[in-house]
Write a structure and sequence with these properties.
Blueprint lengths: L2 H24 L5 H22 L1 H35 L1
Helix pairs in contact: 1-2, 1-3, 2-3
Length: 90
């Protein structure tokens, strides 16, 4: 693993650690997609300076963070929908 890759993983982990809880929270809001979009844009702004300079391997890591955040958001949306459906059945 190169230094750039190691630094990219470190940055990616910190970004995930910061934004994953916010994505889970966003999924529970009425304007969930709008809020999630704003969070993705904020995360993108944080990555931009690194993405331009760190090379393809590091960029792949940064892109993966967006995939993970999207997975977190979709899973939280799914759980919210399940809760709503359970409440309606009760």
């Amino acid at each position: 693993m190169t230094t750039r890759e190691r630094d990219a993983w470190t940055f990616a982990y910190r970004l995930y650690d910061e934004y994953a809880p916010k994505m889970r929270d966003a999924a529970n809001l009425d304007d969930d997609n709008e809020t999630a979009g704003k969070l993705f844009l904020a995360a993108l702004e944080r990555i931009k300076p690194h993405f331009a300079n760190d090379g393809n391997d590091a960029n792949s890591i940064y892109l993966r963070v967006f995939d993970l955040l999207d997975d977190v958001f979709k899973e939280a949306q799914k759980r919210r929908l399940e809760r709503v459906q359970d409440e309606r059945r009760a």
